[in-house]
Structures are given as structure tokens and as C-alpha cells.
Amino acid sequence: MFSELIQKEMISPNYGSRDGERITKITIHHAAGVINAEPLARIFENTRRNASCNYAIGNDGVIIGVVPEEMRSFCSTSRWNDSRAITIEVGNSTGAPKWEIGEKAMKSLILLCADICRRYCIVPYFNGTTDASMTFHCFYTQTECPGPYIKNHIKEIVARINNELCLIPTEPAEPPKEDSSYLIKVTCDDLNIRSGPGTKFKKTGHITDHGVYTIVETSGNWGKLKSGAGWICLKYTKGVK
Ligand SMILES: [Zn+2]
């Protein structure tokens, strides 16, 4: 099968079995050529080259299905990688030495990668090793692939895929503050409530009921009432268990 994002299929005869491996990776290659999708896919129709990819994306942004996802493409010079990866060849927009990828191809690449990640529950990340979900051809053999542009932009590419997947990392939530409130019982007949923790703060009320109150904050001998009415001196209270 292919992603629904393809414009057409141009199936290559060059593929094998995935050896029962699950799809857990994506390997982005560059075509090392300023080339549109059709001529790129046509290269893999040649049996003598014994090369293929699961998808070809042209500099024109067109996506062509070349080797169905359930099959292993001959793309990364590594049977280990290719049996686990969806491989994508991307046509460049400029030649040597920059081998850039144009925005049309990049957009298609991001959408295709996000679609693959969604369907196979792959979390896209790159750490420069074969362990990561995003791997490079150059991990496995002496090659410049995927070229300096993709290598230098892989973090941005991964971020854009994550963005497409709504997997933008969020700030960790603040740990909930420990509840340090406690109950007290007023022991005097007329206890002043003040606007702050001290006698220098102005009086905002009285407690005359010998009642039980919740203190949410303590400062010296003073406790802040949960009601928000103000602070009381704790010397005229006792703890309630
Ligand atoms: Zn490659």
C-alpha cells in the first residue's frame, strides 16, 4: 500500500521482503540531482540498477509511490535499515555543493513523513545514530547522502513533522504545590484580623466566635485565613487535629 498523499504509482521491480520487521523508521535520501518526481521514479524502474525507494518526491513537490510500504526498498545499503524504514528519495532544487531542497519538495516531505508517523505510531526524532526513528543513508555506507542541506536541516525537518503531528513539546506542568494548610481554633474572645502578618498592618476585622479556621500560609506567629479576610496572630489559637 501507499500513502494517500501520492499523485501516482510507478512501481519499481527492485524490492524484497521486510523479513517480518515492523516499520519503525523513516530514512530521507536526496537524489543528488535537480529532478522532478517522474524522472526520479523512472530511475528505479531499471532492474540493472537494483535500487529503489518507497517514495520519490520531486523538486516539483509531486509524490510518487515506488515500492509499496509493506515491501523493503533497496535504498540505504542496509537490509537492516531498509526492512525497518520507509525510504524517501527527494529531488534537490540546487546542485553541488549545497544540494538544497526546495520548499515544494520540503512541504511534501513533511506531510508524507507525518502521515507515515501517524499510521505506524512513529515518534520522529533524530540523534545521529541508527537507534533513532529518523536515519540517514550515510550511517551505513560511505556516501554523502542525504547531502549537506538535509543534514543541516534535520532538526528543523523533525520539528516541522512534529508540528504537523501536533506533537509540539510543551513545558512540563508545574508540580502541584504541597498543601500546607491546617486548622486552628481561636482561643481568645476578640481576635483582630489584619491585612498582613504583623501588628503594623491595619485591622480588617475581628473573630469573636472561638471558631475553627483554616490557615493557608504562615509567617512567624501569623497565619493567613483561607477566606482571604486577612491574617491572625496564632498565639491566640490552638491547633486542631
Ligand atoms: Zn541515499
Question: Can you summarize this structure?
Answer:
This protein has 4 helices and 15 strands. It is an alpha/beta fold and 241 residues long.
Give the overall shape: rod-shaped
Bound molecules: zinc ion
Number of distinct beta strands: 15
Tell me the structural class: alpha/beta
Q: In whole angstroms, how far apart are the ends? A: 68 Å
CATH level 1 name of the largest domain:
Alpha Beta
Helicity range of the residues? 10-25%
Cα-atom radius of gyration: 32 Å
CATH homology superfamily of the largest domain: Peptidoglycan recognition protein-like
Helix and strand succession?
A: EEEHEEEHEHEHEEEEEEE
Q: Give me the CATH architecture of the largest domain, please.
A: 3-Layer(aba) Sandwich
Give the rounded overall mean pLDDT: 94
Domain unit count = 2
Total helix count?
Answer: 4
User: Which percent range describes the beta-strand content?
Assistant: 25-35%
Biggest sheet: strand arrangement: 1-5-4-7-3-8
* Low-pLDDT regions: none
**Largest beta-sheet characterization:** 6 strands, mixed
Q: Predict the CATH topology of the largest domain.
A: Lysozyme-like
